[in-house]
Design goal:
The complex is a heterodimer of chains A (185) and B (107). In chain A, 9% of the residues lie in helices and 46% in strands. Chain A has one helix spanning 2-18, and strands spanning 23-25, 28-29, 44-50, 55-62, 70-78, 81-82, 85-86, 89-90, 96-97, 99-103, 106-119, 126-132, 138-148, 166-171, 180-184. In chain B, a hairpin with a 4-residue loop joins strand 2 and strand 3. The chains are: A mainly beta (185), B alpha+beta (107). Chain A binds chain B through residues 67-68, 90, 114, 117, 122, 150-151, 153-157, and chain B through 60-65, 84-87.
Chain lengths: 185, 107
């Protein structure tokens, strides 16, 4: 019995090592539209890396947003060059040199990857979870962001410029270029 | 004690029902791997919540697919359906199904 318990404990510890505890980040306002509501206290983005599978798990959680609204969620990588794909998702620019963007008075070169959609319920709450990978090993400097509306760099949906698909939330923020560093072993 | 918790959890949340997709009724040219794609659902009887996972494989890459449900009211009074908020509308008969919102047929 004692041996079984020790074995079970070892399995739990091994699992804990492979998949780290999720990092939870708050949202801040985006850079296109500041009038879209959000409960910034309870909304968040959380992520974790599984070192064994080389997969990145991300959950975008919105509360107190506009009810029955579509929000497209994405990643901006701050880079000089970037591959054509990040895990199973394509680089919007197709790979190669990152493109220069100026937002909130900050100019940075970026690569963008669209991940999915949060559909809010009648209370303005919703979430979207995705497992990305396997991802090429490396250290990535990125920000999470949310567009109001969907269709940007995806088939179907609205146009890819404000007022459609305006960036309404970012993390970590509060300024474009503020980055989260994620290392994939 | 751990076993009791597990048994309790399995009672409250039934095993998911897995269903295959078939073609819809508007567009038959959209690709899909019907063998591996599925929709699965389960009901938690304690929280009275329905969990649904829509899984598509072999569909068009980098495309948005909106998912929904038609509530078919063949066996209950339409007036019993607990619609609320701005979705509070009379159900309507659409061929052989009753729907609780009014949208073009593609929706």
């Amino acid at each position: 019995m004692k041996k079984m318990l020790l074995t079970a404990l070892a399995v739990v510890l091994a699992t804990g090592t492979a998949s780290a505890t999720a990092t939870v980040q708050k949202w801040t306002a985006g850079w296109d539209n500041f009038s879209v509501p959000l409960n910034y206290k309870t909304s968040h983005v959380s992520w974790s890396v599984n070192a064994t599978t080389h997969k990145l798990s991300v959950t975008f959680a919105l509360t107190g947003a506009t009810p029955s609204n579509l929000y497209q969620v994405a990643l901006n990588f701050f880079c000089s060059t970037f591959p054509a794909t990040f895990g199973q998702f394509p680089n919007d620019q197709g790979g190669g040199a990152c493109v220069s963007l100026t937002r909130q008075g900050v100019t940075a070169t970026v690569a963008e990857v669209e991940l999915g959609v949060v559909t809010t319920d009648i209370h303005g709450n919703g979430s979207f979870s995705v497992v990305i990978g396997p991802v090429a090993s490396g250290t990535y400097s990125l920000e999470f962001f949310v567009r109001n509306g969907v269709g940007c760099d995806l088939i179907g949906g609205a146009a890819c410029s404000p007022p459609d698909s305006s960036a309404v939330y970012q993390s970590p923020g509060p300024t474009f270029g503020d980055a989260t560093t994620i290392t994939i072993p | 004690m751990a076993v009791a918790v597990l048994l309790s959890a399995s009672t409250a949340s039934a095993t998911a029902t897995v269903q295959k997709w078939t073609a819809g009724w508007d567009d038959f040219s959209e690709p899909l791997n019907y063998t591996t794609s599925k929709v699965s659902w389960s009901v938690n009887t304690t929280t009275r919540k329905l969990s649904v996972t829509f899984t598509l494989r072999g569909a068009t890459p980098s495309k948005l697919y909106q998912v929904g449900a038609h509530i078919l009211l063949h066996h209950v009074s339409r007036d019993l359906w607990p619609v609320s908020g701005f979705h509070r509308r009379r159900c309507l008969r659409l061929e052989h199904e009753a729907r609780c919102d009014q949208k073009p047929r593609g929706g």
